[in-house]
Design a protein that fits this description.
Blueprint (H helix, E strand, L loop, with lengths): L21 H40 L2 H14 L4 H13 L3 H10 L7 H10 L15
Helix pairs in contact: 1-2, 2-3, 3-4, 3-5
């Protein structure tokens, strides 16, 4: 091995810099940008998940107004969430306030339910609304 003193002053023995091809640099930039965008947009998903879990806890504790507020927050960040729509409808029907019934029914518009979801809904669904629902074997 040569000592430091043995290398010439002009850097003749040094390694030449390596230049990566453009497609490698653009791919790296794309991956990095995707990572940053994923982190940026995941905050809404995390907020929606947290609000949904709070709503479920409030509903289980019997605090229906707080549950509804948290379902509204969940639907703000995740407007297509079927679980949040069903939870909101169940909370609205459970209040026994007829003003909330219409809102609960609107939450269920155009949704298909599993048997378990339908059982949960039927427990609190007012009798006057049951005629609006049919069993469909091909969702």
């Amino acid at each position: 091995m040569r000592s430091y003193e043995q290398f010439p002053e002009d850097g003749e023995g040094a390694l030449k810099p390596h230049h990566y091809p453009d497609y490698i640099r653009f791919s790296t930039l794309f991956i990095f940008a995707s990572l940053l965008l994923g982190i940026y947009f995941s905050k809404d998903s995390i907020t929606a998940i947290q609000a949904f879990h709070r709503a479920e806890k409030y509903y289980d504790a019997g605090n229906l107004e707080a549950a509804k507020r948290n379902y509204v927050e969940t639907l703000h960040y995740a407007p297509q969430s079927q679980d949040a729509k069903i939870g909101m409808a169940i909370a609205c029907f459970a209040t026994k306030d007829t003003a909330d019934d219409e809102h609960g029914l609107n939450c269920l518009d155009d949704l298909y339910f599993s048997d378990n979801e339908w059982e949960r809904i039927q427990r609190v669904l007012p009798e006057k609304f049951k005629k609006y629902f049919t069993k469909d074997s091909n969702p």
